[in-house]
Amino acid sequence: MRRWKTAVLIGAISLLLAVTAGAQDFPKGPINYMNPFNPGGEVDIAARAMQPYLEKNFNQPFVINYQPGAGGGLCWSKLAAGKTDGYTIGGFSIPHIILQPIFMKDVTYKTEDFVIFSIVEYTPIGLGVKKDFQGQHRR
Q1: How far apart are CA 84 and CA 89, in angstroms?
Q2: Least enclosed by CB within 10 Å: which of 38, 66, 92, 133?
Q3: Which residues, 6 or more positions from 74, have their beta carbon under 8 angstroms from its beta carbon?
Q4: How far apart, in whole angstroms, are the C-alpha atoms of residue 10 and residue 54?
Q5: Rounded Cα–Cα distance for residues 47 and 6 (Å)
Q6: Who's near 86: CB < 8 A, 6+ residues apart?
Q7: pTM surpassing 0.85?
C-alpha cells in the first residue's frame, strides 16, 4: 500500500512540475525542495521518502533545503517571493499554512499564494502519559 501511495504521489508531482515548467524537457536541473522545518520532522521524513523516487523519475537531484523559522513562515515567505519556474517547490504543514496568515500580523504571504497539489501524509496529534501513570484522572 505504501509503495502504491508513493507511486501515485510521484506521478502527480511529476505531472504538475512538467505542466508548471511548460516544457517536455523539464527538468534541466535540480529540483529544490524548501523544507520549512528542521531536519528530522515529519515534513523532512516525507521529503526524504520521496527523494529517491523523484530523482530516478526526473534524472535530476531533488535537493532538500532547510528553511526553519517562524513555524514555517520564513520558508513560505521565501517561496511566495521566489520564481515560478517549477524548480523550487515547498513542503507545507496544515494547518500552519492556513492559520498563520490569519493570526500573525508579520506574515508576508497568504494561503492563496500557493497551490497545494498533493497531500503526502498526515499525522494525527494525540495526548499520552506513561503507561504506569497512577494519577486520579486515569481511565
Answers
A1: 9
A2: 133
A3: 36, 67, 68
A4: 6
A5: 11
A6: 17, 18, 20, 21, 26, 27, 31
A7: no
Task: Give me the half-sphere count of Cα atoms (radius 13 Å) on the Cβ side of residue 102.
Answer: 6
Could you tell me the three cell numbers for 34? 524548501
Q: Tell me the pLDDT of the chain (139 aa) as tens digits.
A: 455 455 555 655 665 555 555 556 889 999 999 999 999 988 898 899 999 999 999 999 999 999 999 889 999 999 999 998 889 999 988 888 889 999 988 889 999 999 887 887 777 778 888 988 887 665 5
Distance (Å, whole) CA 72 – CA 21? 25
